[in-house]
């Protein structure tokens, strides 16, 4: 996504820029807080990359040239600009996607358990003062 939260994605219709519709998705943070220079360039890099010919609608192929390919290619273009080595699909999946998916899975399981047992959480500001 862009710095302002616009989600860039790619499908058989080309690149999309969505402000809504991704609320149920997992965000995988890629930029470390100390990378201020990259944060300021991020949106321009993302827009320039997305305008490339590789992401025209007719290039889309469900298994080999898809949204995951788009996201990984963008990440690799940023890594190249920083003089760093590219990541493979498996490396990116293992390093970034799986850990966030596991974390989300735990929260979903907890939420489902609370809903099934009809528990709810109540905020008690007076208890915070006692701590």
TrEMBL record:
<dbReference type="Pfam" id="PF16044">
    <property type="entry name" value="DUF4796_C"/>
</dbReference>
<protein>
    <submittedName>
        <fullName>MKROS protein</fullName>
    </submittedName>
</protein>
<feature type="domain" description="MKRN2 opposite strand protein-like C-terminal">
    <location>
        <begin position="4"/>
        <end position="114"/>
    </location>
</feature>
<dbReference type="InterPro" id="IPR032016">
    <property type="entry name" value="MKRN2OS-like"/>
</dbReference>
<dbReference type="InterPro" id="IPR053921">
    <property type="entry name" value="MKRN2OS-like_C"/>
</dbReference>
